[in-house]
Amino acid sequence: MVVCGIDEAGRGPLAGPLVVAGVVFEKKVYKLNDSKLLDEKKRETLFEKIKNASHHKIVIIDNKTIDEKGLSFCITKALKEIISCLEAHKYIFDGNSKFGVKEIEPVIKADMKIKEVMAASILAKVTRDKIMCELSLKYPEYNFCKHKGYPTKEHIELIKKYGLCEIHRKSFRPKALQPTLF
Questions:
Q1: Is residue 182 assigned to a domain?
Q2: Mean pLDDT of 111-124
Q3: Residue 75 sits in which domain range?
């Protein structure tokens, strides 16, 4: 049975794109794991091996589209695009939601259990991390290469100091940036 593993990177950051990847293996790749459990060097090595051993699709959705259409719409759009590009008997997405896409089979912690989803996790994370490091060159004051746009204490402090830039998600409103009543 042909399985397409799907995972995303960038659902929760305050800046940058959402990246969703799908992978259907043609050849085996060894030493896979959830991208969050691998160091950067190992992810980069596996990234090339996965690309060379699979049919894959990487969908990148920018912060402006996320702000205009909403995160759920963007994930749904990416899932449909991957399904239209990759043939499989099963489409397994990491998580607990189908996002309204009937072909999707959600599996909680699939990125730790299913090799195709592990691979998709690596493709999505490495792609997004590269984008954020490139954006860090354009916006050096935000240090995007370090925190990748996630709501770290450092990132929140930099937003307080410099304000939002054009790659920030304006629709995301973390409590730390909300005005207080007192």
A1: no
A2: 97
A3: 3-177
